[in-house]
């Protein structure tokens, strides 16, 4: 009986979940004009099992907002430790790690994954047991789309109190914002893990009408205002926080508080899949291991003011982030990292001149920051995907040695293990894109994932 003919079209695949993607790699290709987008945004169900288990199965096309809404409807004392932007898709966010304002208390989103369903390169649907612990390790923090198509995640939900407290307190440089930021560098990773206090720096006008930098301390505390005030008074009295600066609200209401687009609206907006207003931005990331010297901060603010609409977002680590071993999942940036930096430059028009100007500023800013951030390698967050760090050549000529240049920045010493897992589950590099993990197939070597033959 004749065998069925297999047609091969050599067309690459791009995998899109439910939300936005910094580098656009889920719906574009720099290699081919023809490619296939596997759009998973309609896979968006959320199934919660509360009580003794407090878990949720969420399909990869749901947004964080949809997940948060469903969890809050189940119980006001359940939440999930993930990002502050509700329009982000669950699939990409979790697979890259997943920063959020409860990460000091509960770790990353990926730290709270207990099972998953993935379609591999052979078309098989696998769960944690059938995929094995090595692949399960890799998809938690190793970035989306390198190993298969994750269609659902099983999450461990976390406890949140009836009321949490928030505040946003801003100071310009002239009002002492630089000195406050300097103190923040030393204490933000050491304070109670119930306190998440990030810093946002952006241009503003001072009282004299001159352009300056505004330093915003943007915070959530897992407790009431009285306890928050006690914590700040003990650790950061220089901030001058007062009770009138603080608000108590439910955890689900903080999702709106931290998101500019949904602030002041009903939580029902989290179910709304309408796109946010269109804009353009460029971004990069860094991690800081030692406080930036106080005398250098003025220079950094000066560089910021050279941009048109720059935003620097700095998020503290410490707490659970320092307690989890850097090899527990694929995300590596743990003990010793004080905070991360996200650099953003935003604009409205899509002219080539406007884009080029802002991208040029971003690259210059990134280069200027080199002495003050983590080194050997310089670290980056894979969910803030940055193609300036390097790209694979093509699907047939993907070099592990070349990919180390960017892979070590995202994944540190975990990059080699990621490439070895790729070599086992997808040796033909079916799931390939500009910064996908390259397959590494080693011979007669055991690194925790077995022995393999080389090409």
Would you tell me the overall average pLDDT? 92
Rg (C-alpha, Å): 22 Å
Distance between the termini: 33 Å
What is the chain-wise order of helices and strands? Answer: EEEEHEHHEEHHEEEHEEHEHEHEHEHHH
**Morphology call:** globular
Binned strand content: 15-25%
CATH architectural group of the largest domain: 3-Layer(aba) Sandwich
Record field, number of beta strands: 16
Main β sheet profile: 7 strands, antiparallel
The helix-and-strand class reads: alpha+beta
Cofactor: FAD
Keywords: FAD, Flavoprotein, Glycoprotein, Signal
GO molecular function, one term: oxidoreductase activity
Domain FAD-binding PCMH-type: 1-160
Write a brief structural summary:
Its cofactor is FAD. The protein is an alpha+beta fold and 455 residues long.
